[in-house]
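Retro notes (design track)

What went well: tokenization of the new backbones is finally stable.
What didn't: we kept losing track of which sequence belonged to which structure.
Fix going forward: every design gets posted as structure first, then sequence, in one message. First example under the new rule, 162 residues:
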């Protein structure tokens, strides 16, 4: 059997593996049923749906032919590194790192740091646009998570709110 679209086939395999992993991980929790959902219900549902979607996309990669064969190009290392780094920076900003003396900087500073580092993944970096986006995301996150959902986590740097 010949792969007719490499991108679709590999994407489908990736979705299938991630979905199966989520579904398998959800078995460690009480799943429950539709009437009384347990903590594993939603991850199980998302994992199963993602696995089904992945199988469909991989199957299409085997049977639907494209002009160029959907060849996979080179890996974009710069975006990959900066997007992963932005998530790590966000985690460090939210919780801090006491072992090196970095205090918790909170949600607002974390979102600004995340947005700035993630924006470096692109080909163009414009400070004005990045800061506007960071401000909109910070305000939206504050309104959603702190004001509406009343979640309790640090919003501002710990050395300011003591």
């Amino acid at each position: 059997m010949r792969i007719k679209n490499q991108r679709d086939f590999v994407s489908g395999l990736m979705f299938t593996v991630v979905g199966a992993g989520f579904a398998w991980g959800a078995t460690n929790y009480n799943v429950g049923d539709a009437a009384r959902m347990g903590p594993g219900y939603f991850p199980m549902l998302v994992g199963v749906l993602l696995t089904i979607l992945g199988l469909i996309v991989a199957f299409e990669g085997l049977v639907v032919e494209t002009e160029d064969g959907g060849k996979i190009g080179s890996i974009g290392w710069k975006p990959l590194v900066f997007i992963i780094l932005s998530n790590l920076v966000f985690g460090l900003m939210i919780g801090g790192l006491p072992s090196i003396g970095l205090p918790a900087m909170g949600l607002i500073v974390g979102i600004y740091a995340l947005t700035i580092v993630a924006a470096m993944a692109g080909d163009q970096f414009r400070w004005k646009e990045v800061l506007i986006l960071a401000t909109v995301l910070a305000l939206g996150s504050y309104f959603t998570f702190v004001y509406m959902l009343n979640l309790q986590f640090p919003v501002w740097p710990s050395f300011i709110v003591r």
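Added context from the reviewer: DSSP finds five helices and no strands in the chain.
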